[in-house]
Amino acid sequence: MTPLQKLVILELICLAFGHVKTVKRNVTIGKCCALDEILTYEQKCIKSYNSSWDLKVYSNGSFVSFAGKLPPRWVVKEHLRPRCAKPVVEALENRRFVPSITGTAMIVEYDQKITPSQYCIDYNYVLFCPNNYSPEGYTSVLVKKCCGENAVYSEQNSTCVHFKNSSYNIDVGPNKTLGFGFPICGGSSFTVAGKLNQAHLLDNGSVLINS
Ligand SMILES: *[C@@H]1O[C@H](CO)[C@@H](O)[C@H](O)[C@H]1NC(C)=O
Ligand SMILES: *[C@@H]1O[C@H](CO)[C@@H](O)[C@H](O)[C@H]1NC(C)=O
Ligand SMILES: *[C@@H]1O[C@H](CO)[C@@H](O)[C@H](O)[C@H]1NC(C)=O
Ligand SMILES: *[C@@H]1O[C@H](CO)[C@@H](O)[C@H](O)[C@H]1NC(C)=O
Ligand SMILES: *[C@@H]1O[C@H](CO)[C@@H](O)[C@H](O)[C@H]1NC(C)=O
Ligand SMILES: *[C@@H]1O[C@H](CO)[C@@H](O)[C@H](O)[C@H]1NC(C)=O
Ligand SMILES: *[C@@H]1O[C@H](CO)[C@@H](O)[C@H](O)[C@H]1NC(C)=O
């Protein structure tokens, strides 16, 4: 992540949580698989006897790591998954899922706050149900705007610049959600793929660029 991306994401998180007070009550957090199993990207549980937690939890303005453990007030329940037909799976190392010490979590790309009943964690992945999935179990396709709501990408400066203009809207059409975030690349450098007004957004969220 570039420093700017980090800043924007941190800003979002601070807005979402403010100062989280220390919790007095226990909170039940689902572990998607058993404690001696790991969840895979394919949402399967496989045996693993030596996995440990490496979760950064937002607490009182900063990220806390509980040295291979989870926060003391979290009561972990094995095999407890959120109830929606198609949960989203996300690698924890991407840091797009940010839990707070109270159990409420921020899903950065969706710009949403979710409750513990809407997710389960595991050693490497998290499964969550965004707020806007339909009762038919259909999760709308997420289309991400790189720079977030009040910024645009400046080709000249190769970075996001603050820009507020309510007449600038991106209409992603029905059954899609406009979210926020950069693509996850192996390296950290992005390439401008083309101009949005010359691109065509497909139903599955893929984009066709005529260049
Ligand atoms: C939160 O941080 C502030 C300032 O860093 C500190 O004064 C306060 O005691 C902290 N609160 C808790 C609950 O840790
Ligand atoms: C909270 O959880 C801990 C174990 O994690 C347990 O010892 C304690 O009794 C629980 N407290 C309440 C109020 O349920
Ligand atoms: C974890 O277990 C696997 C297989 O049981 C083993 O190959 C690996 O070295 C172990 N890792 C650690 C850090 O102990
Ligand atoms: C690009 O950067 C230069 C120098 O920092 C600045 O003067 C200019 O306003 C920037 N352009 C945009 C579009 O923000
Ligand atoms: C916002 O965008 C509209 C349409 O492109 C333009 O006419 C207007 O000047 C812009 N306003 C600002 C503050 O940039
Ligand atoms: C949106 O999704 C609903 C439910 O799957 C479907 O009935 C509808 O036709 C879709 N609309 C468009 C424009 O694709
Ligand atoms: C989306 O649909 C297009 C055209 O049907 C296809 O080429 C593309 O691979 C699809 N993308 C994904 C992510 O499934």
DSSP strand tally: 18
CATH topology (fold) name of the largest domain = Methuselah ectodomain, domain 2
Helix content: under 10%
Shape summary? globular
Bound molecules: 2-acetamido-2-deoxy-beta-D-glucopyranose
SSE topology string:
HEEEEEEEEEEEEEEEEEE
Which CATH architecture of the largest domain? Beta Complex
Integer-rounded radius of gyration? 18 Å
Main β sheet profile: 5 strands, mixed
Average of per-residue pLDDT values = 85
| Euclidean distance between termini CA atoms | 27 Å
Computed structural class: mainly beta
Helical stretch tally? 1
Main sheet: strand order: 6-1-11-12-7
> Which residue ranges are poorly predicted, with pLDDT under 50 across at least 5 consecutive positions?
none
As for the number of domains, it is 2
Determine and state the CATH class of the largest domain: Mainly Beta
Strand content: 25-35%
InterPro entries: GPCR_Mth-like
Signal peptide: 1-18
Keywords: Signal
Key phrases:
single chain, 211 residues, mainly beta, Methuselah ectodomain, domain 2, 2 domains, 5-stranded mixed beta sheet, 3-stranded antiparallel beta sheet, 7% helix, globular, binds 2-acetamido-2-deoxy-beta-D-glucopyranose, signal, GPCR_Mth-like
Structure description:
Residues 1-18 form the signal peptide. Keywords: Signal. With 211 residues, this protein is mainly β. The chain folds into two domains: 3-128, Methuselah ectodomain, domain 2 (Beta Complex); 141-209, no CATH class. Helix content is 7%, strand content 32%. A five-stranded mixed sheet has the order 6-1-11-12-7, with no helix packed on it. Strands 8-9-10 form a three-stranded antiparallel sheet, with helices on one face. Strands 2-3 form a two-stranded antiparallel ribbon. The longest helix has 15 residues, at 3-17. It is globular. The structure holds 2-acetamido-2-deoxy-beta-D-glucopyranose (7 copies). Residues 202, 204, 206 line the site of one 2-acetamido-2-deoxy-beta-D-glucopyranose.
